[in-house]
Amino acid sequence: MKWFVSKEEDGLSLLDWLQMRLPDAPDGYLGQLIRSGRVRLTGIPLTRQSRLACGDQIELPDSQRMQRLSAAAKPCQILAQNEKWIIVNKPAGLPVHRSAQHLDNLTDRLQDQLIREKAPFRVAPVQRLDIGTSGPVLFGKGRKAIGELGKLVMGQGLDKLYLALVEGHPAAEGPLENPLEINGKLKAAAGHFRTLRRWRNCSLLLVRITTGRKHQIRRHLAELGHPIAGDRRYRSSLPAFSGRLFLHQCLLHFVDPWLHSDIKITQPLPQELRSWLMGLEPELPEQRRPGAEMLK
Fold first, then answer.
1. Euclidean distance between CA atoms 267 and 287, whole angstroms
2. Whether 136 contacts 90, CB under 8 Å
3. CATH number of residue 15's parent domain
4. What pLDDT is attached to residue 211?
5. N or C: where does the chain have the smaller number of CB atoms within 10 Å of the terminal CB?
6. CATH code of 249's domain
7. What domain range is 249 assigned to?
8. Of 262, 177, 175, 242, nearest to 211 (Cα)?
9. Which ranges of the chain would DSSP assign to H, the alpha helix?
10. Is there a domain that residue 68 lies in?
11. What is the pLDDT of residue 290?
12. Could you tell me if 171 and 283 lie in one domain?
């Protein structure tokens, strides 16, 4: 498990930082973690008095107890909800579903939070985001709602916009429509991109997709020769920042199947991605294109 020290936490001692991040953890447990050398920075064990700096990547044990303490300390950010659905902001580094490698996950966090609030239903996501991608995720409340929203997604009724920083300089805009191989079969994958801004060796794109194939945007952009920054799996030469790739879902749009109302949820870039852009070399001398307002 890896956590990053925020700007507001700069200068804190390790013990103070852990107490703030894990308020339910007993002091004895935190002290034992530190003494055993299981709290590290770049592989080096830290002490209680170690001073942390903004951007430090702190390594913690990925035990079940730590997962529980972490989940309890990090309530889900609910962006919108009604009786049938709930939309939650997913941070990068947190998977949507539980796996053997990742016990902590967005679905369990949300369900645990709703149980504490005595909600009389189970939730399940009807879309997914890669573990390294941030942005809003739609959940259904109860079996019937989950099924109805699943039909909406299968019918391509879920419109999604992403911001992606990529290598090089793609065209001003273009389609992303090559079929993708999924489990040995070619599947249709629909999308489109528009270039918003360009720097010396990279560009910021606004990408719209209507299908939800695994790694769809990442694979399509890599096929074009413009892999997403920080995406080692698809051979990006641009280094990662804050341990993540630069892909963020900034808009989720659908028509409520029950009320027939237009639901549009926007989510600005996380602070670590804003900092990433600020650290780039000066932009090329050209105007920003329509769509740049999604950066705000």
1. 24
2. yes
3. 3.10.290.10
4. 84
5. C
6. 3.30.2350.10
7. 77-295
8. 177
9. 14-21, 27-35, 64-73, 106-116, 143-154, 216-223, 271-278
10. no
11. 55
12. yes
pLDDT-based confidence at residue 52 (cuts at 50, 70, 90): very high
140 with 146: CB under 8 angstroms?
Answer: yes
CA dihedral 54, 59, 62, 65 (to 10 degrees): -60
What is the model's pLDDT at position 46?
93
Cα atoms in the Cβ-side hemisphere of radius 13 Å centred on 53: 2
Q: Which two tokens stand for residue 269?
A: 């870039």
Tell me: do 163 and 29 sit in the same domain: no
Instruction: Assess if residue 276 is contained within a domain.
Output: yes
What is the C-alpha to C-alpha distance for residues 132 and 230, in angstroms, rounded to an integer?
10
In this prediction, residue 73 carries a pLDDT of: 64
**Residues 228, 121 share a domain:** yes
56 and 82 share one domain: no
What is the average pLDDT score of the chain? 88
DSSP-derived secondary structure for 125-179: ESS---TT-BEEEEEEESHHHHHHHHHHHHTT--EEEEEEEEES---SEEE----
pLDDT class of 292 with cuts at 50, 70, 90:
low
* 119 shares a domain with 46: no
Structure token pair of residue 24: 């339910």
Identity of residue 105 = N
* Domain end among 11, 32, 62: 62
Same structural domain, 111 and 242: yes
- Statement: residue 296 has pLDDT above 60: no
Check residues 27 and 242 and name the one with the higher pLDDT: 27
